[in-house]
Amino acid sequence: MLKLDSFVFNHFAENTYVIWDEASRECVIVDPGCSNDIEEDRLFGFIDSHQLKPLKVVDTHGHVDHVVGNNAVKRRYGIPVAAHPDVKPDFVQAKRQAVWLGFQPIGDIDLPDLDLQDDEEIKIGDSVLEVICTPGHARGSISLYAPVEGWVLTGDALFCRSIGRTDLPGGNFVELRESIRDRLFALPDDTEVYCGHGEQTTIGEEKDFNPYVAV
Ligand SMILES: [Zn+2]
Ligand SMILES: [Zn+2]
Question: Do the bridges between strand 14-21 and strand 2-9 make them parallel or antiparallel, or are there none, so unpaired?
Answer without folding.
Answer: antiparallel
